[in-house]
Amino acid sequence: MQGLSNEEVLDTVASYTSAGDLSPREGQAAKQPSPRPEKSSEVAVATTPSADLELWAAIMASLEEQGKAQHRRHLSRHLSDVSPEVAGQLRTQRSEAARVSPEGVTYFDLSSSSSGSNGSSGSKDGSNPGPGRTSFGSVNGGVTCSSGGGGGTASPLLATAPGDCGLILPSFEGYPAAVREVVLGQLCNAYLQGEAEAEGIVNAVPGCTPLLVLSTLGDGNCLSHAGSLGQFGVHDRDGRLRAAIHATMAHPGAGARIRERFERQLQASGIPQEGWEAEWRRELGTFASSASYLSDVHAYTLANVLRRPLVIFGDEQAAAAGLAGVYLPSLWPSPRTQCSRQPLALLFGWSHFSLLAMVQGEGPARPPLLPLCTRDGPLPLRFLSSAEATEAAVGSDAGAGNSVRQLVLLRRYMDAERMFNGRLGVRLSEAPQPNVLVSLLGSLYVRQAAQQQAEQQAEQQQQQQQQQQQQQQQQQQVGQQRPQRQAT
Fold first, then answer.
1. Spatial separation of the C-alpha atoms in residues 253 and 103, rounded to whole Å
2. What is the domain count for the chain?
3. pTM of the predicted protein model
4. Which among 134, 177, 275, 424 could bridge 372 via Cys, Cβ 3.0 to 4.6 Å?
């Protein structure tokens, strides 16, 4: 495929329709967006790191307004979907933050993205951010809030601190116990959680922080949905993150480097060299439809687009397909300053990607500890270059997961350490920004609980009053009967 310039890359990202598909090519009819479903009793919910408070206030108002008309027993998607206009604003802000690095990686500079800027205040190639924007190299993970020198107030989609992590949900301490049970029960996929734990894929290493499997859309685009939830707090319904993966792979610079690593994976899998060209075309052709499943090369590209390590836990199918493993954002020349050191963790199980999360303060480890292994063994390092594989003493199967030399390589990208069992793990930040979603849900259920308690108290008072009235009536009857007996 012919390489794309930086301007063409951004145009490719912008060309995705609201349904998540590429704009129609020549000779193709435009795919009509799916009709909007009728209103149901489900409110769209998923984990959200931190978002614009005014937007989330509108979301909360919409939630409460719907609550007046209908009681919702189950929340399964994302809260922003309650208000399509609000969800559109969130995704528009993300779209306007699309940039291309000098290396050809499409990413999202959320450090100072302002509504209505259309990305015009800075250079699209990331080399000259322009007034009101932080320089490319100074952005820590693409999520640091900064207004720059333009004199205006930044309006970022996310305003997370450098140490913030999409893996960490705030503590439920201070909420009634029922709040944690209800909120996590609605955020999590209980079936996948149970299956993954039973097979030793997650929560199988003693001493590590427990992982939760969060509900993630399963429409064939679950990899970018899960990545988008962890990074931006919304599902990738508009396909912009998927488009960024495609644009990066199609770029003459970044694409060539990805392809080189991809061909090393093919060689290690025993695929003859004459088949490599067809395999690469097949992976690029995946983007012709938004419903086509993404693979390991797309996961590696996603780690670079998000500018943070990606840790994928997986079942036997994931192991056989080569999906499980640690993906490093190695296309960036200075990962310590250009990338977040807080990884995103995903589960690939039963043909579906899901976002994994932890709850602040829960579990035995302080700070939180994410294992880079399952019950069966270490997670392999994926898509290493020849030099990286030699440096880390990793064979073609990437099986030496507990080597000291691997630890040295991992520490360039994350706060990795050797755990008590000799395996490797990652320490995570324990101070996330306030999680807007959990706060909203928590306050909602606290108010509901308070209302129920008030209703119960009122009912008890009414019962007590009725009992007192009955007792008074009985006493009056007894008092009336006594004079009658005396007269008799």
1. 6
2. 1
3. 0.69
4. 424
